[in-house]
Design a protein that fits this description.
Structural class of chain A: alpha+beta
Number of domains of chain B: 1
Distance between the termini of chain B: 47 Å
Strand content of chain A: 15-25%
Shape of chain B: elongated
Shape of chain A: globular
Largest sheet of chain A: 8 strands, mixed
Radius of gyration of chain A: 25 Å
Order of helices and strands of chain B: HH
Helix content of chain A: 25-40%
Largest interface: A-B, 36 and 17 residues
Number of helices of chain A: 16
Number of strands of chain B: 0
Structural class of chain B: mainly alpha
Distance between the termini of chain A: 13 Å
Number of strands of chain A: 34
Number of helices of chain B: 2
Strand order of the largest sheet of chain A: 2-34-24-1-23-9-10-22
Largest sheet of chain B: none
Radius of gyration of chain B: 19 Å
Oligomer: heterodimer
Chain lengths: ~625, ~60
């Protein structure tokens, strides 16, 4: 069996492109199975949805409720998929050095059994290429392979931090969301600077380890020579480098060095020099962190196909948002990701065909999702605002995926008997996000949330991030993350005030009132799917869930500020960021897609949780009781 | 092993430390002071780690 997981593939767009003749291979599948909307998770966020797919349980079972999780004791947010735990013992201090007496451990926070563990146990070899919410990758059995995907950090330990070096006075230096912009001096046409890598835990204060590089700009032609490590690369203005290995010394004389790799874009060579450097990726040829299971699989795959992006969601949306990339440069960069994935899929298909007997391959693509996030506004533009290349970029992306589907269909046709089942599925669809909903402002204006200084200015409210402005002694409810609303419960939150006996009644009261929130400009409801956790989740982790899940109406989403715990003075505000498509909304409005090379059960209305059950049944394996889905074929 | 540092503590504070150390079961006021300082340092270390976590969150496109 082969499953192609296309993050964010949308049923409405796909139906349109199919009808226009852009996706003939997907249309061939639809002729057999129909093009079926696949009910997504609540909330419809990728880590939640993919965890539903992986475990066959809802979030009450697997425990991933939002991209952003929340520690009720420290009142701090953290990434929901994985957490780095410090060494059990404090490091030994010797001068400026800190000698670790143990190692940090990255822990996958998703609970429940992955369906491929059950396949492996029954002797079915599995290959999981970058299934999300699997970092560090679940140790595969004897016959199985995995490369981690969403949740995999860059070498700095972040979800991706790019660097820009420039002497262009129009580009403002400093930290931006997901990146660092450095003003450099150019002397005699030469720039000398350093690239920052992983935090050096061996030095007091854990500063970033660095590696030096030099850029020599040609005085006549728009080219520059980059020297980094033992690499020398001549780049034209606008040209991308291939992957460049880099190394960061943690101790003097190379006694402890951490390998990584970067790709570089020479944005301009004259009159100013601007160099974009990708986040420092874990090099699959020599992984500094566990990205493969078994560990040797990442180097083996890289030996066959070359190095490839290993950080999660590597399409650099942050560089576009920061104005470092133009939309066309973003399309080019995300195209580099897709080109690598094409090469890997070809290699894995060949291996799949060579493997005798039953065999399972899952292959993940992120580019449809990331481009849709960044190009939704361009897709909706009309008249003079319409840029044909950008408006049609999604159509082109779907065409490229369709070509890959064609390769898989061709591979299956060449088998003696086409016994292999093939599914194309996505975790959610998409909607245009035009209006930011300031959930914390709504809670404040409805008396559930109180600031330490209720009269604080909009500027102060902007500064008070991560819930720091909140008066916990008088606050009953607050929002953080993309769809999560928490109550401030006695004995649970550090400074809780809501008696536990009143918790559920308060949640239901808020749900009822959220459902009446309207946009005064249009009269439309802002929240169409407010849900109390007990009404939707099942399993042992329901008590860990946010008290209320906020499903925004299509077009609305938790504001940039509310998602990081700010309390705006405004209730609603236009979303003017390039990130203009989203899906963290009413789950019914953003279903994914399902297509297969065999008919589905008549009248089936499949959900993500049906798929692991279907996969196991296909191989004759009974699914465990915790998997509550149904077979779809 | 790594040397000792002397710090001046106000007489009133030192008297309070002696009382609390005794009541709380520390073997000496020195042990209590050391424990209190270690605890405070650990809190600062935790705050630094929170900042790291926030940086990680910002890398997500969904959060600005």
């Amino acid at each position: 069996m082969i499953v192609l997981g296309v993050d964010g593939m949308d049923p409405v767009l796909l139906a349109r492109f199919m009808a226009d003749g852009d996706t003939p291979n997907l249309k061939r599948l639809a002729a057999t199975s129909g093009l079926v909307p696949l009910a997504t998770a609540v909330p419809p966020q990728s880590p939640v949805a993919w965890s539903d797919f992986i475990t066959g349980m809802d979030a009450g079972g697997h425990g991933i409720f939002d991209f952003v999780a929340f520690d009720r004791q420290t009142l701090s947010p953290y990434l929901s998929i994985a957490r780095v735990e410090p060494p059990a013992r404090q490091p030994l201090a010797v001068g400026r050095w800190r000698i670790p007496l143990g190692t940090e451990r990255t822990v996958l926070l998703r609970h429940g059994q992955a369906f491929w563990e059950l396949l492996d146990r029954q002797g079915i070899p599995t290959t999981m290429f970058q299934v999300p919410a699997n970092y560090p990758p679940v140790p595969a059995g004897r016959q199985s392979l995995a490369i981690s995907g969403m949740g995999t950090p860059d070498l700095r330990g972040t979800a991706g931090t790019f660097s820009v070096y420039t002497n262009d006075p129009k580009i403002k230096p400093g930290s931006v969301s997901g990146g660092e912009i450095r003003r450099v001096k150019i002397a005699g046409g030469v720039i000398r600077d350093v690239l920052e890598g992983p935090p050096n835990g061996l030095v007091a204060g854990a500063p970033f380890a660095t590696t030096p590089f030099t850029v020599r700009a040609d005085p006549v032609n728009p080219v520059a020579l980059l020297e980094i490590g033992d690499q020398r690369v001549l780049l034209n203005s606008g040209e991308w480098s291939g992957w460049l290995p880099v190394s960061f010394d943690l101790l003097p004389a190379g006694m402890a060095a951490v390998p990584g790799m970067v790709r570089v874009l020479l944005k301009q060579a004259s009159p100013y020099v601007t160099l974009y450097v990708s986040p420092v990726n874990i090099d699959p040829r020599n992984p500094a962190q566990p990205i493969g299971a078994p560990p040797q699989w990442a180097p083996e795959l890289a030996a066959r196909v070359g190095p490839f992006y290993t950080e999660e969601m590597p399409e650099d949306t942050k560089a576009l948002t920061a104005g470092i990339f133009t939309p066309r440069e973003f399309i080019t960069q995300s195209g580099l990701v897709l080109a690598e994935r094409r090469q890997i899929l070809r290699a894995e298909l060949a291996r799949f065909q060579r493997t005798p007997g039953p065999n399972f391959l899952f292959f993940y693509l992120s580019t449809v999702d990331q481009r849709h996030h960044m190009l939704a506004r361009e897709m909706a533009a009309t008249g003079a605002a319409r840029d044909a290349v950008l408006a049609e970029a999604m159509r082109q992306t779907y065409r490229e995926v369709d070509v890959m589907v064609g390769w898989i269909l061709a591979a299956l046709q060449s088998e003696a008997e086409s016994q292999t089942a093939f599914m194309v599925m996505s975790d959610h669809g998409f909607a245009h996000w035009h209006t930011q909903a300031h959930l914390n402002a709504w809670l404040e204006q409805n008396g559930y949330l109180v600031l330490k200084d209720p009269g604080s200015s909009p500027a102060q409210r902007e500064r008070d991030e991560w819930l720091t402005g909140i008066d916990w002694q008088r606050t009953r409810a607050f929002g953080i993350g993309l769809n999560s609303l928490y109550l401030n419960v006695q004995g649970r939150e550090r400074e809780g005030i809501v008696p536990p006996a009143e918790r559920e009644a308060l949640a239901r009261e808020i749900v009822a009132r959220l459902g009446t929130w309207r946009d005064p400009a249009t009269g439309d409801l802002v929240v169409t799917q407010p849900l109390v956790r007990e009404d939707i989740y099942h399993g042992p982790r329901v008590a860990e869930a946010p008290d209320v899940l906020v499903g925004y109406a299509p077009g609305y989403r938790s504001s940039w500020g509310s998602s990081t715990g700010k309390v705006s003075a405004l209730l609603l505000e236009p979303n003017t960021e390039p990130w203009s498509g989203d899906h963290c909304m009413d789950s019914r409005a953003v279903p994914g897609i399902l297509l297969a090379n065999r008919p589905l059960v008549a009248g089936a209305t499949p959900t993500l949780r049906d798929l692991p059950v279907t996969i196991l049944k296909f191989f004759g394996i009974e699914s465990p009781a915790a998997m509550t889905g149904n077979q779809v074929f | 092993m790594f040397g000792k540092h002397k710090i001046a503590i106000d007489k009133d504070l030192w008297e309070k430390i002696q009382v609390i150390a005794g009541v709380a079961g520390y073997s000496s006021p020195d042990e209590f002071v050391l424990h209190a300082l270690e605890k405070q340092v650990a809190e600062f270390a935790a705050a630094e780690s929170d900042e790291e976590i926030r940086k990680k969150l910002r890398g997500l496109g969904y959060i600005s």
